[in-house]
TrEMBL record:
Name of the featured protein: Enterochelin esterase N-terminal domain-containing protein
GO molecular function terms noted in the UniProt entry: enterochelin esterase activity; iron ion binding
Domain Enterochelin esterase N-terminal residue range list: 39-154
Gene Ontology cellular component terms for the protein in this record: cytoplasm
Coiled-coil ranges per UniProt: none
Entry's family note: Belongs to the Fes family.
Annotated compartments: Cytoplasm
Alphabetical keyword list: Cytoplasm, Hydrolase
Domain of life (superkingdom): Bacteria
Gene3D superfamilies in UniProt: alpha/beta hydrolase (3.40.50.1820), Immunoglobulins (2.60.40.10)
GO BP field: carbohydrate metabolic process; iron ion transport
Species the sequence originates in: Actinocatenispora rupis
Amino acid sequence: MDIRYGERGLDRAEVERLWQRAERGGGPVAVPAGDGCEAVTFLWRGDHDRVVLVGSPIDHTDLRRTELTRVPGTDLWHLTLLLPSGLRAGYAYAIDEPHDDLSGGNWSESVRRWRTDPLNRRTFRRECDGTGIGPDPNAHTESVLELPGTGPSRWTAPDPAVPTGQVTMHWFRAADTGLDCDHRVWVYEPAGTGPYPVAVFFDGDVYVAELVPTPRILDNLIAAGRIPPTLGVFVDSVGETRTDELRGNPAFVSFLTDRLLPWVAGRWPVTADPARTLVGGSSLGGTCAAYAALTAPDRFGLVLSQSGAFQQPSAEFPDGLPALVAAHPDTSARWYLEAGLLETDRGGFPTSILEANRHLRQVLTGLGRPLRYTEFVGGHDYVCWRETLADGLTDLLGD
């Protein structure tokens, strides 16, 4: 499913009417366009030279397609896209940026200058937890687009009546782990009693922050009886080492199995059953989750992957991760895979994330592996993953 681009030639009266409607509705104007799509008009006002729509699921390799058009003689700017109904996505505006490719070398500098939609009160702060290392240098706020059909945000919302677990942070020093740098690990202990199932997540600074508020999601799911009280373990992914660690690294998996899980078992009442031990993450975190379950099946028996980057080969699986799965036909892991219908950009790889996840689904199905596979309406976006995480947790940990 691709973005389709609408008409640019709206006249002044039409844009003025759309602006007034956007003021009343609080954001971009969506009009049903048939075939499961909405014609969504994004609007901006100001005396500028260039206004570009950025964010997910925009393809940042060609931002000419998402430049807004200025109505001659006014300060009104507009852009209409045909987007799928049910889409949830973060977006912002880049104003007078001097370069064409905002995903290039100036990304970190540019992203902090992005502006939210003044007409839209729904915003989303893209900021990792900075405990112990200072503020996130790439932190910024985006507006949130929710088209008809997205549904409510049930499991991410705080509920004062729900018992809350306790989150603590711990340091694992490089000298003790054999890894290249120190790692923070957050542990969520639920309000219930053990022995607990264990859920290990990568990109821990993301999964304990508001980006994907997993402790709150666990609180809500446990209180609703959807899953048993579960111990959450969130492993930090540090800067430039993230790619090396999460793209199929035996030393990193050894850290998880030989150092981290025994440390957890020595401090909290947890199960040692791999069938109740989950490993999960998004993007490369999903890749690492799958690799860990394949290479350490005696420790990890549940795989939760959100938009796993299975299209990226590595030294451990040069033909791609689906080929590695096919080479391990006896693995007994249960899988939850999801990918976005707009994750179609190949980015220089042979397949896109969506195509690679569909391929992995076929491989797992052919092997008779327990699997739930879903496709959400969105792109490579925490705005989507934070809402769908509860589905994966419920599927793998629920009765």
